[in-house]
Amino acid sequence: DRLRGILFDGASGSITNTEITNINQNHGTVLSGCQEGNGIEVRNFGSSPTTVRVSIDGNVITAYQKTGIVANGDTDATITENVVTGYGPQGYIAQNGIQIGFGATALVKRNEVSGNSYTGTSDDSGGILLVAGPYYGSAYSVGDQIMNNTLTNNDIGVWLSQAESDGVTPPPTATNVKVVSNLITNNAVTNGYGYQAGISDQG
Predict the structure, then answer these.
(1) What secondary structure does DSSP assign to 11-30, as a single string?
(2) Which residues of 141-150 are buried (b: 16+ CB within 10 A; e: fewer)?
(3) Any residues with CB less than 8 A from the CB of 156 and at least 6 apart, and which?
(4) CA 26 → CA 41, 64, 124, 179, 203, distances in Å?
(5) Which positions ≥6 away from 20 have C-beta within 8 Å?
(6) What is the pLDDT of residue 1?
(7) Are 158 and 184 in contact (CB under 8 A)?
(8) Are 75 and 51 in contact (CB under 8 A)?
(9) What is the biggest distance separating any 2 CA atoms in the chain, rounded to whole angstroms?
(10) pTM of the entire structure?
(11) Whole-number Å distance between alpha carbons of 99 and 23
């Protein structure tokens, strides 16, 4: 019952050549800090007994509240050739461009992700975020490939966060995540948390 543009819940298929905009609770120029409002969300937490496979290709996603594209759970996603544009620096919510989470595996390639920057002091925004492992109550994500993306003016270009339950200990075996040949730029320090990075690997 959360705010989404397109939702695949336990379903395989494709989402292609679609423009998705204004998935938010905004009133005029006031942004909402409610942690919802995803342009495209693919999820599989027990809805399907097997891994779902989804292609997300050639979409344009703007004015989302939380995240442009999300793939969570027992999901194998191919995310290619999308344009994902955040609000730019703002203090209401830590937006993310593309999120792979909670055990999902994805090929994230040739996307343009920009304008995910949070000026608040409690968090950062990510252009491409991979978040998984016991610390987040899930399996690790294994074999993800993040390649040939253009990442502009995000607090953290590619943010990998996978750890054991203490949030510090790394995975006991290699997760084989590859971050290769991405173009990452940021022309200003705009976030309030005091941490920015091209690529951040935690855990």
Answers:
(1) --EEEES-EEE--S--BTTB
(2) bbebbbeebb
(3) 124, 125, 126, 127, 129, 195, 196, 197, 198, 199, 200
(4) 20, 10, 21, 34, 35
(5) 5, 6, 39, 40, 59, 60, 61, 62, 64
(6) 63
(7) yes
(8) yes
(9) 48
(10) 0.95
(11) 16
Q: Which residue, chain included where needed, has tokens 């999902």?
A: 104
Q: Which two tokens stand for residue 178?
A: 């590859």
CA distances from residue 31 to 34, 37, 68 in whole angstroms, order as listed: 9, 11, 16
Q: Which two tokens stand for residue 189?
A: 């320090």
Is 100 within 8 Å of 106 (Cβ atoms)?
Answer: yes
- Pick the closest to residue 161 from 197, 116, 121, 192 (CA basis): 197
Q: How far is CA 52 from CA 17, 31, 55, in A?
A: 20, 33, 10
CA distance 130 to 102: 9
> What is the mean pLDDT for each group of 10 consecutive residues in the chain (203 residues)?
91 98 76 86 90 97 96 97 96 95 97 96 95 95 97 97 94 96 94 89 89
Q: Where are the beta strands (DSSP E) in the chain?
A: 4-9, 13-16, 19-21, 38-44, 52-57, 60-62, 67-73, 75-80, 83-85, 96-101, 105-109, 112-114, 126-132, 145-147, 150-152, 156-162, 178-180, 183-185, 197-202
Instruction: Look up residue 135 and give its two tokens.
Output: 């610390």
